[in-house]
Design a protein that fits this description.
It is built from two helices and 21 strands. It is elongated and about 70 Å long. It has helices at about 5-20, 275-280, and strands at about 45-55, 70-85, 85-95, 105-115, 125-130, 135-150, 150-160, 170-185, 185-195, 205-215, 220-225, 245-255, 285, 295, 305-310, 320, 325-330, 340, 355-360, 365-370, 380-385. A hairpin with a 7-residue loop joins strand 20 (about 365-370) and strand 21. It has two domains: about 5-255, Beta Barrel (Porin), CATH 2.40.160.40; about 275-385, Cupredoxins -  blue copper proteins (Immunoglobulin-like).
């Protein structure tokens, strides 16, 4: 049976997301219960902790948190790893869920985003396949995400389940969400989800929250109200009728996961300079050795070709320019990055949010470079003769 009242909402949300620009990044670029099209970067480990709680007791509500009420907790842990560009593997675990009125709901999944924002493409698309261990169900999701007027985030998803909530019934769910960027660090977001075919009379899931980016760090944080208890595909596709769960979510990207090996070898290798050291070491104008083929100098060339650093990647990963061209990197992320030639042709200081760095290329050749704090961020510049 199809619930006609919610079907147009899901289709409209998906259609708008397909037709509008999009980026995907944890929390500030999503809604509380919809992950959207985001995938983490290759070789990057990413941890998320969502904690929802309910006040219980006689006539208890949120105001009784320091009174006679007591908390019932519904945590969901998520760990994801970037396998290759556009593909990540993940695992979600909820220690208390209402999917089957039981504890220990778990879900391994694989997600692929074949279309991501780059160049003229201003929207993104992803496919996910999962297995819900509590329901013994193979689940799937198709998501599209886009921007509207640079302030509004739109997300639409279609989900399918082979065994919904352990009922031996296949079903289809639709989800739609929207967010409004108050500024670069704060997003107001909400979403709704509903089973529209296969099962009858399942409560609609909903959430609303304030999503925060913590300045100069890769971490994000949210405060939410919802009627959903777990963060799996099935868990966020329905809610608990008449209940409100309060909660928060926190993301911890382990950027440059390979660097964590230094924990076991603290004296091996050399550390990258910190922001103070790097800033102090930066010359006003530094001419590199003749065979380097680059000149490093202060930003200010109005004819420079710009490369945006956004969502932990260089937006022009394979750029071709002519000799004499100046390249300017502009950091659009809320965290600091740098740009370093693989063969040491140049090594910028940390580039803070909104800051720039320039290099003029004086010789033909191919210059591969990366971000030292986040080595999975890689790109290449090919310099040719005019």
């Amino acid at each position: 049976m199809v619930k006609i009242s919610w079907l147009p909402l899901g289709i409209l949300s998906a259609g708008l997301a397909l037709a509008t620009p999009g980026v995907a990044q944890p929390l500030t670029e999503r809604t509380p219960n919809l992950e959207g099209t985001w995938v983490t970067s290759p070789r990057n480990l990413h941890f998320q902790f969502a904690h929802r709680f309910q006040m219980a007791g006689d006539d208890a509500d949120i105001g009784d948190i320091f009174g006679n009420g007591f908390l019932v907790n519904y945590p969901t842990f998520a760990l994801t790893y970037g396998v290759v560009p556009g593909v990540m593997a993940g695992f979600r675990y909820s220690s208390k869920s209402v999917v089957m009125d039981q504890l220990n709901e778990w879900q391994p999944y694989l997600k692929w985003a074949p279309l991501q924002r780059s160049g003229e493409r201003q929207w993104s698309l992803s496919f996910a396949g999962a297995y819900n261990g509590a329901a013994s169900s193979f689940d799937s999701e198709i998501s599209a995400q886009g921007d509207l007027w640079r302030r509004v985030i739109l997300i639409g998803s279609v989900r399918g389940f082979t065994d919904t909530f352990g009922t031996d019934t296949a079903s289809l769910a639709l989800a739609g969400g929207a967010g409004y960027r108050i500024n670069r660090y704060i997003t107001l977001a909400a979403d709704v989800t509903s089973i529209v075919a296969g099962l009858d009379d399942r409560p609609v899931g909903w959430s609303a929250g304030l999503q925060f980016g913590i300045p100069h760090t890769p971490h994000t944080f949210s405060l939410m109200a919802t009627n959903v208890t777990s963060g799996t595909l099935q868990g966020t596709s329905t809610g608990v009728e008449g209940e409100v769960f309060w909660g928060f979510e926190f993301t911890v990207p382990f950027s440059g996961f390979a660097r964590w090996g230094k924990i076991l070898d603290p004296d091996g290798g050399t550390d990258s300079p910190g922001p103070v050291e790097a800033a102090a070491a930066r010359p006003e104008v530094s001419v590199e050795p003749a065979d380097a083929g680059v000149i490093v100098g202060p930003a200010g060339n109005p004819k420079a070709v710009e490369i945006e650093i956004k969502n932990f990647k260089f937006d022009e990963a394979d750029l071709e320019i002519v000799i004499g061209t100046t390249v300017r990197w502009v950091n659009k992320d809320p965290v600091a990055h740098n740009t370093t030639g693989d063969r040491g042709e140049w090594d910028s200081p940390l580039i803070g949010p909104g800051e720039t760095f320039e290099v003029t290329f004086t010789q033909a050749g191919e210059f591969a470079y990366h971000c030292t704090p986040h080595p999975f961020m890689e790109a290449t510049i090919r310099v040719v003769r005019p």
